[in-house]
Amino acid sequence: MTGAVALCALLWAAPARASDLILHNGKVFIAPGEYADAVAVSGARITAVGAGEELLARAGPRTRLIDLAGRAVTPGFHDAHVHFWDGAQLSSGAGAGNPLEEAVASARRLGVTSVSGILEGDRELEAWAELQRAGKATLRYWMWGRLDAPADFTASRERFSSRLPPEKFRWSGLKAWVDGDFDGWTAALFEPYSDKGESRGSMLRSPRDLLRLVRRGRELGYSVRLHAIGDRAVRAAVRACAGASERAPWTPSGGAPAPCVIEHADLVAEADRTRLASLGIVASMQPSRMIEAGGGERHPSRLGARRRGAFALKSMQAAGVALAFGSDWPDRTLNPLAGLSAAVARHGEGEEGPDESLTLEEAVSHYTAGAARAAGAGRELGVIRPGYRADLVVFDRDLFSLPSGEILKARVDVTIFDGEIVYERVDAGKF
Ligand SMILES: [Zn+2]
User: Ligand 1 is a single-atom ion; what residues have CB below 5 A from it?
Assistant: First the structure.
């Protein structure tokens, strides 16, 4: 235990009744450098965080106790960038019932309790409504429509919102694509690719078109999500967001969704890091994209030496950029540990490359609190604090004291969603 534990006073949200659930004798992650050893839950909310003896003193005869025996507890993971319907369809067996059912079960096993991503239309919404009706929708979903077709999103919203409760389903954003990806040399760069002559990739929209779209999305009250991977596309996205911003810059602690989010932001010019920070534009990054799909090589290999400047996680963080982490599932695995492990192992490449790795604590924060804040849920989710929704993950060991090479070996023992235990690993130690 660290000195920070002693500084963390017991926090109570005036519990009116005995706790339903107390997790004690563990390492409850609050923020980088800050842990408690116990957390208490009543109904769907966290009611207390602090020292085990004090929380246990208020247990009632019906309180369920979980002895963590040193295991780590984190907030439920919020994957800030998924294609959930695509992933569900890819992973569901042919002829299976609702393709979402198994995908949501996988999310529970991996400790993912919230996702943000683009909707694929009414068939997907119908499947969600069905899952919700069956009581199996143990996931919160921040849904985005297409920025070039906002009327479709509004129409879907009118058709489905009565069947999709707002504590789980939020009509939150509109997405547009500014460039492509490194794989097909379509990410837009300032300098040519290292293996494609003079090609610098291509922009999918003119600056004028982009500004018009971003303005429209903002006028409609949505969070605008711009896919931009190359440094030239990120610059264009920043300009459009700056041009469309009609109010004071967004602050992560304000409880409102980020007006502008750049999705991916793999390669960001140094000057733009500062601009992202000062304009309050969130970078929604997927650290597992640093590894080529299928494993092996560092990504993106076709940038040559400039690859060192890609995924500049630590520099982005140091510049004050609000980060939200995710997976880009099904392009990469949904398992948050893959992204966390990549973020922690992001050492500089070659002697001269700066060390861009994060601590595991920082990476977990971006994958929980950071993603929740970007979604506008920073006052109810993403942090283990009294009054917050009880979405929690118990790992099978103390995640935070593992050597970085062993992060992927950890397993989720228990996932708690809205105060309910929705997943328990079959062969997990008895508690
Ligand atoms: Zn994606």
Answer: 328
